[in-house]
Structures
1.
Amino acid sequence: MAYINKLLTENFLYYASYVIMDRAIPELDDGLKPVQRRILHSLFEMDDGKFHKVANVVGHCMKYHPHGDASIASALINLANRGLFLDTQGNFGNPITGDEASAPRYIECKCSPFAKEIFYHPKITRYIDSYDGRNKEPLVFPAKIPVILILGAEGIAVGMSTRILPHNPIEVIKAEIAYLQGKAFSLSPDFPAGGTADCSEYADGNGKVRVRATIDSSDPKKIVIKEIPYGSTTESLINSIEEAVRAGHLKIASISDFTTSKVEIELKLARGVYARDVVDALYAFTECERSISCNCLVIKEGKPVVTTVSETIEYHAARLLDLLRQELELERDELKNELFSRTLERIFIEEKIYTSIETKRTNDTVIKAVLDGLKPFTKELSRKVEVEDVERLLKIPIRRISLYDIEKAKREMEQIERRISENEMHLRHIVDYAIDILQSYIEMIEKTCPRKTKLRAFKRIEARAVARHDFALKYDAEGGYLGTEVSGEKLLEASKFDKILILRNNGIYTIIPLPDKFFAGQKLLWTAIAKKESLSKTTITLIYSLSGENGAYIKRTIIDSWLTGRDYSLLPETAVILGFSTASEFDFKLEYKPKSRSKKIYEVFHAKNYTVRNRSAQGIKLTDREITRFEILTTQEPDNKRKQEDLDASTAHISKKKPNREARSKKEIPPLETISEGLLKAALKKHKKEN
C-alpha cells in the first residue's frame, strides 16, 4: 500500500505539471499554448507562399503534437477564426452562429505576413527536441507584441484555471508604444462579436466584465438583436430566449433568425406587449447579458503566475527591446562579415594576388602565398585573415574573376557600410527604433482590426425587478388546490420570484414559492405575498376559543422570519378561530349566552389595547363567558391608509362571508369573519351532529 501511495503521488505530480505546462496554460512570452505554437511552426516549415490543405498541416503538426488530429484541427480553426495570424480559404465555420467548419480536407490555410513579422525569426529562436527526439521545435517564439492579450485564452488545469479576455490588437500595440514613451495607458477587452461591455469591475485583466447584446428597440412591436455577447452564439442565445418564454418571463409571439455575416435576430412581441417593457427582461433572463469572470494566469519563466494587463505590457515592452537588440546585433555581425568578405575578395582580385599561386605546388604554399599577398592591405580589413577566409577566396571561379566589376563592388560595399551605420544608430536609439517597428505593425492591420465592442457603464438589472407580476394565484375551494394553473377564485397577482404565505384556519402558516399547483387544503384562511418588508409591518390578529372550553382569546403577532416549506403554528392545537384581521386598529364585539345573574349580553373590545407578541406566545384571554357571536365593528387606519391599500393588493382573505344573524340554535356556531364558505358548511355539519 505504501508503494501504491508513492506511485500515485509521484505520477499525479507529473500529470499535473504536464497539464499545466504543456496543455492548458499559455506562455507569457509568445501568448500561445503548445498546440498553437506547433501549428504555427508547422506552417512556417511548410511555407512556400501557397495555401495548404488543413489536413496536410494537421498531419505535419502531429510530428510535434502527438494528441490526435481532432485537437490540432480544432485549435487551428479557432486560431484561423481570429483572422490575424492565418490566411484561409474555404468554410472555417462561424463562431458567432456556432456553425462548424468543413472537414480539414476541404479547407486551406497558410501563415499570414503579420504572423511572420511577429513570430518568425529562427536565428534568435531557441529550439528543443520534439517528443520523440526526431525533430526540433521552438521552446517559445520571439513574439514582439503581447499576443496573449490579443488572442485571449481559456484553460483548466489541475488546481488552477485561466481566462484572459481578448483585446483589440491596435490598442494593445498602442499601449506598448505608450509605455515605451513613458505615458499612461489603459486597456479594455474587445470581443469579436461586438456588443457592449461594462468594465467598471474589470481589474486590469482580473475581476469581471458584464457584456450585453446590441438591441434595436425603435419599433415598439419588434426587437432586433444586432450583436451578441462574448461567449454566446446565435443558437444558444435563441435557446435562452425560448427558455425564458417557457418560464413565463417573456411574452414573445415569434423568433426569426436572419443572421448571415452579421447578427440579426428578430423578436415579434405578443399582443399588448411593447419593446420598452421587454428589453430589460431580455438582459435579466437570457444570454443577452453575460457576466464574465477573468483570471490572468500565464506561464512565466517556467511557473504559473497570476499577472495583470499592465504587467504584461511592461514585460513585453522590455522583451521587445531585448529581441530587437539581439536582431540588430546579429544583423550587424552578419553585415560586417559580409563587408569583410567583399573587401577581401576585392583586394584579392583587384591586386591580382591570385597570380602569386600559379607556381605553387602544395596547398600550404598556396595559402601562405595568399596570406603574404594580403599583408600590405591589413589596415583595410576589419579583422585578421584566417585560413578559412583564404579557402573561400581560392574557390572563386576564373570566370567570376575575369568578369569582376570593381566599381559595382565598391558601390555594394558602400551600401553595406550604410546599413551597418543605420544598424548602429538603431542600437543607440533602441526605444525609438522599437516604436517605429510597432507603428509599422499598426499600419499592417489598422484596416482590418477596428474596435468592435462599445464601452459603457450600465445599471445592474435585478431579475426580480423586471419579472412579470401578472401571474394569477387561484384557489379551488372544493379541491383544496392553490396555484397559477388552478381553476378557481383569483386571490392575487404575483411574480415567479415571489413567495406565498398560506395561513390555514387551524392557525398553521407556510411559506412556499409561487406554485403551479399546490395542495393547500380546504381550510385556507388567508394568503399574501411573503415579503419581509410588508409582513413585518402587518399585525395579524386572531380571536379564538379552545375546543371544549368557554371563553375567548386574542393573539396579535407579526410574521417576520421563516424557512421556505416549513409549517409554523400560531395557535394551540385545540384552537377554533372565531375571527381574523390584518388591520392594526379595529373594534370587535363578542355576544354572550345570556345568564340569569348577568345582564351583560355582549362586550366591545379594542384590538389596539392588546400587545403584539411573538408567534410562539400564548394568547390573552378576553372572557370566560360562552360566545354566541363574533363581529368586527370598525377598522380605523387614518394614519396608515396607503400602507393598508398596498397590503390589500398583495393579500387575499378567503371568501369573506357575513354571518347569518337570523338562523340561531341553542349552541350557536360563532361566525368567522374571514372563514371560507366550505369551512363554514363543515362547521355547521359538525354542530348538527353534536346536537
Note: The chain is about 35% helix and 25% strand.
2.
Amino acid sequence: MDLSSSQALVASLTYVEVTGSTNVDLAAKGGEDLTVLVAGAQTAGKGRAGREWSSPVGASLSVSILLKPKLASADSLAWLPLLAGAAMTRAVRRLGAAATLKWPNDVLVNERKLCGVLSELVDGQTVIVGAGLNLEQQQDELPIPNATSLALEGLTVSLPEALHAYLAEFVPLYKSFVAAGGDPEAGLRSLAIELCSTIGQDVRAIMPGDSEVVGQAIDIDSAGRLLIAVPGENTLYAVGAGDIVHLRHN
C-alpha cells in the first residue's frame, strides 16, 4: 500500500493491517508532534463515552495522530476535536460527498454518521486524536442504523486516498492553530461554525450524569462549547461535553 503522499505531510506514519485500537497503541508508543498511526482494521476501537466499535479489514480508515502543540493556554486543547472534525468534513467534501460537522466532531452525510472522532489527553499537553471513517461498509455491516459509508453514498474511495485527503486538511489547520497560539478566533471557530449543521437545529443535549437540555443550537463559543437557547428562558446553556441529538419535526 503506497502511503508516501501522506507520509510527506507528517513527522512519521506507520501502517498496520489490524490492531486493537490505534489510539491505545499510539499512546503507548509515543512520538513527536504529528506522529500518525493508521490501521486497516480495529478490533477494540472506542468512541465517545467509551463505546466500543470495530471494523473489518479495509472497510474503514482508522487513523490516530499524536499532537504536542505549544499553546498559550491548555484550555485551547478543547478545540482539537473540533479541528479534527472540521478537517475530516472538508476531506469528505473533497472526496465528493456533501458532508457537514455535527458538534462536536461527528461527520454527517444526509444526517447519517460517516465518521467519528475521539480525542484523548495522554499527559500534560500531549493529545491523541483518533478518527474512524466508514469507506466500504454496506448497511448491515455498520454499527448503528443511522450510519453510512462512502460506498453507500455512491463513492469508491481507497484507504490511501481517504488518508491523504484527511491529512491534507488536518495538517495545515493544525499548524495554523498552533501558530496562532491556540486562538480559535484566528480562523478555526469561524470555520467550525461554517461547517456545523448543528447550528440552527433544535437539539437535545444529553450531558454526563444524564441531565438534558432541549432547545435551539445557536453558536459555538470561544471555548468550543455549543450554545443552546431554551424556549422561555433568557439564559444560554453552554454545553462542553455530551451527546447531541438533532431533533426532527414533521
Note: The longest helix spans residues 159-179.
